[in-house]
Structures are given as C-alpha cells and as structure tokens.
Design brief:
Elements: E1 2-8, H1 13-17, H2 30-43, E2 50-53, H3 57-70, E3 74-76, H4 93-99, H5 101-109, H6 122-138, E4 143-148, H7 150-161, E5 178-184, E6 187-195
Parallel strand pairs: 1-4, 2-3, 2-4
Antiparallel strand pairs: 1-5, 5-6
Helix pairs in contact: 2-3, 6-7
Length: about 210
Amino acid sequence: MKNIVLVRHGESEYNAKRIVQGHIDTDLTPAGVVQARLAAEALKRFSIDRIFSSDLRRAYRTATIIGDVLELPVEKDPRIREMKFGQWEGRSYDHIFETDYQTFQNWLKNPVACPLPSQEEITEFESRLASFYRDMLDLPEQNILVVAHGGSIQGILCVACGMGMENLWALKHSNTGITILQVNNEGVSIKLLNSTAHLEAYKPKENPIM
C-alpha cells in the first residue's frame, strides 16, 4: 500500500492580492509561512518518507519549511507546476468577474470544452501530471509528500481516480489543504480531502483557486 499525501502551497503574494498566478513565480506571504509551519506539524503523524515539490517558489518554499520540520530534503519536479493560464495570468479576479464572468464560469464547469485563451493545452497538462503520478507509484517508499498547486493537485486526483480533466475544478484545495491518496492492489481511494484542521486556530481570508 502506498500513501500519496498532496498539499497545496501556503498563501502567496498573488493569492493575497486576488491575482491569477499560473506560472508567475510569486513567494509566500507571512501568513503563508505560518500555514506551512502548521501543516508541517500536522504532517508529522504521516511518517513521510520522501518529499517532492513543484519548482515554483510558493510551492518549493512551503515544501522546504515542511522538510525542515520533518528533517527531509525536497526534490523539485517541474511536472507538477500549476497549469499555465495564458493571457489570464496577472489579471485580478475582480477584473475577470467584471469583463469575462461567463467565460470564467464556463471554464470552471468544463475546462476541456471551454479552455481559456492561450492557456496550456489541457492534454499537455494532463500528460505531465500523469507522468509524475506513474513515477510516484514506481517508487519504493510508502508515504510520499507532494507539495504543489490547486490545479496540479486536483489534476493528479483526476488522473489517479480516472475522473477526466473536465472535473478539474469540481474539487477545491485551500492553502496548505491536505489530501491523501491511498493506492493498493484493489485500486485507488481518497482517504482525506482538503483537510485544513491544522489551520483552525489561524484562519486568514479564503484565497482563489489559482
């Protein structure tokens, strides 16, 4: 049996400003650092053997904070970067809601049928996540931590559970939300989904999905 523990990065600078990020490389806010430390304490009970992280700064810094607490190194992997959102990167959610509300809603309902202008091809996004996921299954370690982004974590869930990428945004991950995929001979199950119990004593405002 293998447990793949998925954690979204802490609050980033663009999360706090409500700006779409994608591949824009923002850092954590002070609140995001606190969230990462709290997540690290919660993750002690999962006996993590190995840590992988997106190479984008907000995820990698979250992972290194966790790694310091768990006394484990962090391995970067660009395959678990966030989706590239094309022309929408750097735009505020307020501006999107004012000018492209229906496009945004259609995309949330089905990003396969209704892609954003110039976004990363959904098939390429799925392919890199599937490649990463297959490699995780081949590793000898039992408990693997993956620190990434809302879109890439939810994409991994779609790949692992065979849900189809049209369901990418049907799921949601909060900053440092913890999800556990359990894989054994009988298949795949989601044992925990977006748990934020570790943040109960510390709740900054909710941040956008991207």
